[in-house]
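Preliminary data (for renewal application), pyridoxal-5'-phosphate complex.
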Amino acid sequence: MIYLDNAATSFPKPPQVLRAVAGVMMQPFGNPGRGGHKAALRAGRVTDACREAVAELLGGVPERVIFTLNCTDALNMAIRGLLHRGDHVLVTHDAHNAVMRPLAGLEQRGEITLSVLRANENGLIAPEAISEAVQPGTALCVLTHASNVTGTVQPVRALIAAAHGFGIPVLLDAAQSAGTLDLKDTGADMIAMPGHKGLLGPMGTGILYVGENVSPRPLREGGTGSASESVHQPDILPDRYESGTLQLPAIAGLLQGARFVRTHGAAIHEYETYLIDKLRSRLSAIPEVTVYGDGEAPRVGVLSFNLQGRECAEIADLLDRRGFCLRGGLHCAPCMHRWLGTQGTVRASVGPFSTEAEIDSLGDAIAQIVQVR
Ligand SMILES: Cc1ncc(COP(=O)(O)O)c(C=O)c1O
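Predicted structure:
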């Protein structure tokens, strides 16, 4: 099996991630923050170390690293925790439904209004798009760092600076960039990311980084193991946002994944871009194939394509039968497909352990599928 769906979740994970998950299941680890016995303290050291490793990747402070279930959970915490009735929100054409659905739900209930920022023909957003769309009640700007459909990377530092020029806080969806692109000094007020994609941790992990200038309302309240004399949710971080037992085995794996990308992240990005550019050149040479996204724009290891006159689901299915795991469809990004003018695409997304031979075989398989109708 050739796995090329790393944008959905990464596979394989580094061996130390697997060992860490198993280690927590096989030895006595207690509930982190609950109890003063050795097993609970040992568990607390794992969560502390993971917060530190992630904070280092972000150039942030550990207590502002909030563990979530996935990136969707982190985005919901930020969006629904921060917005108030009457707010106006800026969003982008490349937003995933993890951003769009919470926003569209609030809009449908009449609580907020939304504007989509204008993008250039290459899919990039310029800082002027923010000044054009801003309104007196604009309370949040949600940016997607890298598209999960085309892999195009937005100039987020310039966009965040532009939003801050109007006093607007920014939530950055780093689902497709965390682990490969540098997330230090982006200026984002909140960063949402999965632990199970580029950070190479297990499914069931995500992070919301909450910066100093924002304080979303917690969506989940309950026991934190701290301030137990009070029936009210504590204000201290990260406890304010982390009620209930954490997913310790998965967090132990995420710690190892975060350490791995801390050492290799830049090289991983270079390698993944090399592989995806190789695939782009191969596919671009086949007249029946349309490849989407600007090959010159900054990018991550994600590429979408279609075959003339064929449904993307059919192509993904034919590839699956040949042993390739690629995703066909809308990739939960309907606005992006409206912008591209597509009904869906086939998506290949590489990881640090993908190989050139796999990319060559995929190119061969697509060339064969084009021949056979
Ligand atoms: C850009 C983007 N945002 C958010 C998400 C949601 O991530 P998760 O599956 O961890 O909830 C994804 C998932 O593919 C994504 O690509």
